[in-house]
Amino acid sequence: MTGRAAGERPDGRSHDDSEDQSRARTGEGPGGARLSLAALAVALFVAALVPPLSSAARRVEAVEALQFALLAIGVPALVALAAPWRLLGLTGRSTGAADAEGHAVLERPKMADRVAATRRRHPESARSLVYLVLETAVVVAWRIPADVDALARHGWLSLVEAVTLVGPGIGLWLELVESPPFTPRLARPERIAVAAVAMWTIWVTAYLVGLSHASVYRAYVHVPGSDLSVSADQAIATGVLWFTSLCAFVPVIFSNLMIWLRSDEDLDDALHRLVRDERRRTTEWPAGEWSDGGRPSG
User: Which one of 76, 116, 194, 255 counts the least CB within 10 Å of its CB?
Assistant: First the structure.
């Protein structure tokens, strides 16, 4: 490379990435909109776990699929977009100043601030992929027939399902969207790939059920001649999962694709940034991190 790509700043980032991260660092954003998203996330979480939806989910596969979609996709995405960390008392107040790297200086950093700072010091893609692997494993686990049948027979398991889906789901979405003070550690092409894999995982599990003409989940009883046949119930369940995952992940994929293309980033630029960031991390160690015999502190 003999020059920077169009739209790239001297620090190697595109203008769009820098503006996004600036908002995430300072916590700027439409407070009313974020508050609305947080309220919607709470409402959907509660609705998924209480009647009438929870009771109907034990009788109709399509409703169970909706319950799963809310817990695996809707609630985690809304929480990440809402960024309710300050509302929950997990972030400190900004002094209005910024440090040398452009991060807001806080009066008293709290847990979310410390976690965000740690994420910035360790932006390796492998750490982000852990959340994708965990989310994929949990999603597949809760779609296998044995577990769905157990949910239909034992309603209390929906609480276990909620905890195991929402937690990893939020972790995954923090790698896809800005959620002040958190910023995604993945480059935009990597965010596109991760979002696509997460969406395809849900699509494949739903497609396998939709293809079957026999009942996949034996705990759901379909009486011959009733309004909703086995095939219809499973087809609607498949449609629910396809539609919700489409609505959640496709905007992430296309928005990152458009910004990436507009900034004219290419593989050489991405490699150049990775090498530069790695060199900076190896030369700017916090004082006291090196043990005896290592690099002197201070």
Answer: 255
74: tokens are 């809707």
d(CA 184, CA 120): 9
Extents of the domains making up the chain: 15-280
For residue 243, give every residue at least 6 positions away whose Cβ sits within 8 Å of its Cβ, in sequence order, or none.
none
pLDDT in tens, 83-117: 999 888 888 776 666 665 666 666 677 888 888 88
**What amino acid is encoded at 163 in this protein?**
V
- The torsion of the CA quartet 138, 202, 250, 232, rounded to 10 degrees, works out to -140
Report the sign of the C-alpha dihedral through residues 202, 184, 168, 41, in that order: negative
